[in-house]
């Protein structure tokens, strides 16, 4: 099985209740990425995304650009692993 680029991203700020997850889903449709976005109990949004490194980077940049007025901080962790997602979903 081939490995894919994977990133775990935490967005902090006023990121819940503003359509953040739905917007992230719409942006994901513009790229060849798979993953999941979910709200966390502490008020952050958690994003896991995988695909080609360039697609993942462009996707995350797209989310940051589109939602920049709501995001105070972005924490990213990157690596490679076997694919775990099929499509992109909201949880």
What would a concise description of this structure say?
25% of the residues lie in helices and 42% in strands.
Question: Mind explaining what this structure looks like?
Answer:
This protein is an alpha+beta fold. The protein has one domain (4-83): Alpha-Beta Plaits. Helices cover 25% and strands 42% of the residues. The protein is built from two helices and five strands; from the N terminus they run βαββαββ. A five-stranded mixed beta sheet has the order 4-1-3-2-5. A hairpin with a 5-residue loop joins strand 2 and strand 3. It starts with a strand and ends with a strand. The model has no long low-confidence stretch (mean pLDDT 97).
What is the number of independent domains? Answer: 1
Strand content: 35-45%
What's the level 1 CATH class? Alpha Beta
Provide the structure class.
Answer: alpha+beta
In N-to-C order, the SSE pattern is EHEEHEE
Proportion of residues in helical segments: 25-40%
Strand order of the largest sheet: 4-1-3-2-5
CATH architecture: 2-Layer Sandwich
Count the helices. How many? 2
Basic shape: globular
Rg calculated over all Cα atoms: 12 Å
Uncertain segments of ≥5 residues (pLDDT<50)?
none
- The overall pLDDT, averaged over residues, is 97
Gap between N and C termini, in Å? 27 Å
At CATH level 3, the topology is Alpha-Beta Plaits
Attribute tags:
91 residues; alpha+beta; Alpha-Beta Plaits; 5-stranded mixed beta sheet; 2 helices; 25% helix; globular
Write the layout of secondary structure elements.
Layout: E1 4-13, H1 20-28, E2 33-39, E3 45-51, H2 53-66, E4 71-81, E5 88-90
Parallel strand pairs: 2-5
Antiparallel strand pairs: 1-3, 1-4, 2-3
Helix pairs in contact: 1-2
């Amino acid at each position: 099985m081939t490995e894919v680029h994977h990133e775990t991203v935490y967005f902090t700020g006023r990121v819940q209740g503003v359509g953040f997850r739905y917007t992230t889903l719409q942006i994901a449709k513009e790229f060849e990425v798979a993953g999941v976005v979910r709200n966390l109990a502490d008020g952050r949004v958690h994003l896991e995304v995988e695909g080609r490194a360039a697609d993942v980077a462009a996707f995350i940049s797209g989310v940051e650009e589109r939602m920049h007025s709501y995001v105070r901080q972005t924490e990213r962790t990157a690596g490679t692993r076997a694919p775990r997602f099929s499509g992109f979903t909201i949880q």
